[in-house]
TrEMBL record:
This is DUF642 domain-containing protein. InterPro entries: DGR2-like_dom (IPR006946), Pectin_Meth_Modulator (IPR052437). Residues 1-33 form the signal peptide. Its main location: other. Gene3D superfamilies: Galactose-binding domain-like. It is found in: Cell envelope; Secreted. Pfam families: DUF642. It comes from Hibiscus sabdariffa. Keywords: Glycoprotein, Secreted, Signal. Residues 35-197, 209-370 form the DUF642 domain.
């Protein structure tokens, strides 16, 4: 049994590392505390019995939903007969003028709150899919079931809610928005499996000028979802569920549990084709030289082909081609550039729209983006030493 023994040797040698890993998971556990009550709608409304065979039950004053306040036409939905839901339990359908809301208390320290939720269409024969507006304290997003990116009938999305703290009440609101439809075949959205995560403000580390370059700070993955989380366009890095990185088009936020992730627990897969991707601006010293390292690959989801990723770092724009067998490849590359202005753009854009043989939309994976100054001195002078030296010079001068 060489495997367990090698693990124990590794553990003995890496005591500080395993401690920091433990600490990291402790923090993660804390960060993903579930803030919402009845977040998967498995607590039944008052008059619905667990063995109810009725697929849709209209909520009203006598039939309320634990944890939630609602207005308009809201139905309690049970999976089965044409309705597929995450974990096959229950969901709610937001019908005409529907609005549901819940509030929760923020932690003591200010943190960014990010929502993961699942959206499903209510039927197959829809001429139009009504939209759902998701609002948090500082941000609002509109979602609709316009396209299937995966195999499941439902899809999970990520949405930035806002910055809160000091026991502030954070309100989360879902509202339906009807669309024009000639006949009566509008499908209303079903929502299910909500998860709220608080992430701390990111601080620049010595080992990477780029914030969230490893894509570890984003929405929390649903434990039973095998299809990652879709992130729709979020053109402001401040209001992006992928913290500090703007999203163009649609990307899939993938977890290492279900996909091939080059580094850490998460990466991004650019799924919506031409010019979709991620973008940010970094404040750099004008005229200085920098190095941008990154890993490109595929998610091990049977996505085959040649993907072109256009990488921009300042004024340098370069195409990289990945040849993928769909079996989880990863290749490190880098770009050297000089910062010509203080706001330096960094972006990764896909030039390829791909689908697997099963029809799943897929594309190149980007991970582990590291930006560092390439002419930084090997021996860094500590600020305290620098101040002492300056003082000494000043004293000697006089
Ligand atoms: C729910 O149950 C209560 C009594 O338990 C009854 O008065 C009420 O009419 C019921 N509502 C519905 C919608 O069935
Ligand atoms: C549902 O279950 C309850 C108890 O769990 C039982 O009393 C009732 O008869 C059941 N109803 C149906 C329709 O099976
Ligand atoms: C709720 O229950 C009350 C009392 O049983 C009844 O008068 C009322 O009509 C019910 N409301 C609805 C919407 O069913
Ligand atoms: C929903 O919003 C209303 C109005 O803002 C508020 O009174 C109510 O308490 C909220 N419901 C929940 C469950 O937070
Ligand atoms: C959808 O339409 C097809 C053919 O038009 C029909 O056979 C099927 O029963 C419809 N499904 C639903 C859920 O209405
Ligand atoms: C269309 O919807 C309206 C309002 O919901 C309903 O009264 C009408 O019967 C529906 N028509 C058809 C053809 O389903
Ligand atoms: C995940 O799936 C398992 C088995 O299907 C189920 O027991 C569990 O409750 C699910 N977890 C969540 C968070 O829904
Ligand atoms: C990268 O490839 C795309 C598609 O072939 C092309 O449109 C684009 O101009 C190329 N960019 C660079 C920097 O060569
Ligand atoms: C892809 O498959 C081909 C033939 O099956 C093989 O030669 C090649 O090494 C594979 N490439 C990768 C990156 O796995």
């Amino acid at each position: 049994m060489p495997f367990p023994s090698s693990i124990s040797i590794h553990k003995m040698q890496q005591q500080p590392l395993s401690f920091s890993i433990f600490f990291f998971f402790f923090l993660l556990g804390f960060a993903s505390a579930d803030y919402l009550q009845n977040s998967d709608f498995e607590s039944l409304p008052k008059n619905v019995t667990g063995n109810s065979s009725v697929a849709f039950v209209l909520l009203n004053e006598n039939n309320t939903m634990p944890g939630w306040t609602f207005q308009g036409t809201v139905q309690y939905v049970t999976a089965g007969r044409g309705v597929t839901l995450p974990d096959n339990g229950h969901a709610i359908e937001l019908g005409q003028d529907a609005k549901v809301n819940q509030s929760f208390k923020a932690n003591g320290d200010y943190a960014n709150y990010i929502l993961t939720f699942s959206l499903a269409p209510c039927g197959q024969n829809c001429s139009a899919n009504a939209k759902v507006i998701v609002s948090g304290p500082d941000n609002q997003g509109i979602f609709s079931f316009k396209q299937h990116y995966g195999k499941q009938a439902w899809q999970s999305y990520g949405q930035y809610l806002g910055l809160s703290g000091h026991e502030e009440s954070v309100s989360l609101v879902f509202e339906s928005q009807s669309v024009e439809s000639e006949d009566n075949s509008t499908c209303w959205p079903l929502i299910d499996s909500l998860l709220v995560k608080a992430v701390d403000k990111l601080v620049q580390g010595k080992d990477n000028i780029l914030l969230n370059g490893g894509f570890e700070s984003g929405p929390e993955f649903l434990s039973n979802s095998t299809e990652g989380i879709l992130l729709d366009s979020a053109l402001s890095p401040v209001e992006s569920p992928l913290r500090q990185l703007a999203v163009v088009g649609t990307i899939r936020y993938i977890d290492s549990k279900h996909f091939s992730v080059p580094h850490g627990n998460a990466a991004v897969e650019i799924v919506s084709g031409v010019s979709a991707g991620i973008h940010t601006e970094v404040s750099l010293a004008q005229g200085s030289a920098y190095n941008l390292d990154f890993t490109l690959g595929d998610a091990n989801n049977a996505c085959e082909g040649d993907f072109i990723v256009e990488v921009q770092a300042g004024s340098v724009v370069q195409n990289f081609t990945i040849t993928s067998n769909g079996t989880g490849s990863a290749k490190k590359s880098s770009i050297k550039f000089e910062a010509v202005s203080s706001a330096t753009p960094i972006s990764f854009s896909s030039f390829t729209s791909s689908q697997t043989k099963d029809g799943i939309f897929c594309g190149p994976v980007v991970d582990d983006v590291v930006l560092l100054s390439s002419n930084s001195p090997k021996i860094a002078i500590k600020p305290s030493i620098l101040i002492c030296l300056l003082l000494l010079i000043v004293i000697l001068w006089y």
